[in-house]
């Protein structure tokens, strides 16, 4: 089975009202863990890489690892997605590498730090859409700006900043003018482990307050404008399990109080049109906790396999829970996967 376009995965998810996890990767163990969980649960999946991950892996290595995942798991529909592309040139590079989907995050300028104007976002996003669709490649865009920083990308907005949330009244205009296939919305989620400014009297972190009602408004406005069942995307959607924070710190870590997005909030979004859910921090926490445990409990170990294998298992267990909670489990064989050539024909027929 070839790599499939993200557009197809999200359109299929809309038909049965479930979400699809988009899991960031940097190395072989992460990809293997994701695919093991998806194979066991028959889950379609999006494997994504940031620009930082591509730089870390020297581009071609990560591409070949993703291709290996497809070869080893032919029954699982897998999409390869560029996370937070910052320019048309970056997206072109990903398309040349064989990615079936790209994100152009023109909510920020090309430096990946400065909040951009609406006009800049529209113009830049449309340029990527016009280019990518010629190759059958799906395009995700972002409207509004998220808090936090991920792999050096982000405006560093505070977790409680509400001035850059997605304007529901702009969503339909943006989709119509750009032709993007999915839209990442800013509703108060944030990149990284530290997603909240809320703490109780004892110093315990509380979940961030999300503007969940905006999801409903955005979806309603899109439907009214002729875009029914339009796929929305939640970035910064790691739940930051407290047991993993505790485990990291138990074995020598020094993480501050942190709290992520409750699964109930994510499922609320899924029920109202969120189809793609980005997860990165949770995977990092699971692997780091497992590695620290090995180092502390068996300090005589020095073979990387002795700590990377438990790290892989920890991420597998994490992903296993995510695909069930998002609802994608069991849907891998619901549809005949499309190729990029198939999707090119779809776009050409618009």
Can you put this structure into words, describing what you see?
This protein is α/β, with parallel strands linked by helices. Helix content is 45%, strand content 12%. It has one domain (6-240, 256-280, 326-348): TIM Barrel, CATH 3.20.20.70. The chain has an eight-stranded parallel barrel, surrounded by nine helices. α8 (213-224) links the parallel β6 and β7 (232-234). The longest helix is centred in the C-terminal third of the chain and has 23 residues, at 304-326. The protein is globular and about 60 Å long. The model has no long low-confidence stretch (mean pLDDT 91).
Short description:
The chain is of the alpha/beta class and 350 residues long.
CATH superfamily: Aldolase class I
Determine the CATH topology: TIM Barrel
Unreliable parts: none
Mean pLDDT level? 91
What is the name of the CATH architecture?
Alpha-Beta Barrel
| Structural domain tally | 1
Secondary-structure map with pairings?
Elements: H1 6-16, E1 20-24, H2 28-41, E2 45-50, H3 51-56, H4 60-72, E3 78-85, H5 88-97, E4 101-104, H6 118-132, E5 138-143, H7 168-178, E6 182-185, H8 213-224, E7 232-234, H9 242-250, H10 263-270, E8 274-279, H11 281-297, H12 304-326, H13 340-348
Parallel strand pairs: 1-2, 1-8, 2-3, 3-4, 4-5, 5-6, 6-7, 7-8
């Amino acid at each position: 089975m070839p790599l499939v376009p993200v557009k197809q995965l999200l359109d299929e998810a809309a038909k049965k009202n479930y979400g699809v996890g988009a899991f960031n990767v940097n190395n072989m163990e992460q990809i293997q863990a994701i695919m093991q969980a998806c194979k066991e649960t028959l889950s379609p999946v999006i494997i994504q890489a940031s620009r930082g991950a591509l730089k870390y892996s020297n581009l071609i290595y990560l591409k070949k690892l993703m291709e290996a995942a497809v070869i080893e798991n032919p029954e699982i529909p897998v999409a390869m997605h560029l996370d937070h592309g910052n320019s048309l040139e970056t997206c072109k590079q990903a398309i040349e590498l064989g990615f079936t989907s790209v994100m152009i995050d023109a909510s920020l300028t090309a430096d990946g730090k400065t909040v951009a104007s609406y006009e800049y976002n529209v113009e830049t996003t449309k340029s990527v859409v016009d280019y990518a669709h010629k190759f059958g490649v799906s395009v995700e865009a972002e409207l509004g700006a998220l808090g936090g920083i991920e792999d050096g990308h982000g405006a560093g907005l505070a977790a409680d900043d509400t001035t850059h949330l997605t304007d529901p009244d702009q969503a339909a205009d943006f989709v119509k003018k750009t032709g993007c296939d999915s839209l990442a919305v800013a509703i108060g989620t944030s990149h990284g482990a530290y997603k909240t400014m809320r703490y109780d009297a004892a110093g315990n972190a509380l979940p961030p307050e999300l503007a969940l009602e905006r999801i409903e408004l955005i979806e309603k406005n899109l439907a009214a404008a002729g875009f029914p069942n339009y796929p929305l995307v939640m970035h910064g959607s790691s739940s930051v399990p407290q047991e993993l924070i505790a485990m990291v710190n138990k074995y020598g870590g020094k993480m501050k109080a942190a709290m992520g997005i409750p699964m109930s909030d994510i499922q609320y979004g899924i029920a109202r049109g969120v189809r793609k859910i980005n997860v990165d921090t949770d995977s990092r926490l699971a692997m780091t906790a497992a590695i620290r445990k090995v180092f502390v409990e068996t300090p005589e170990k020095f073979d990387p396999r002795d700590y990377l294998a438990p790290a892989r298992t920890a991420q597998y267990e994490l992903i296993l829970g995510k695909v069930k909670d998002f609802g994608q489990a069991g849907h891998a064989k619901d549809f005949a996967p499309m190729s990029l050539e198939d999707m090119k024909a779809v776009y050409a027929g618009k």
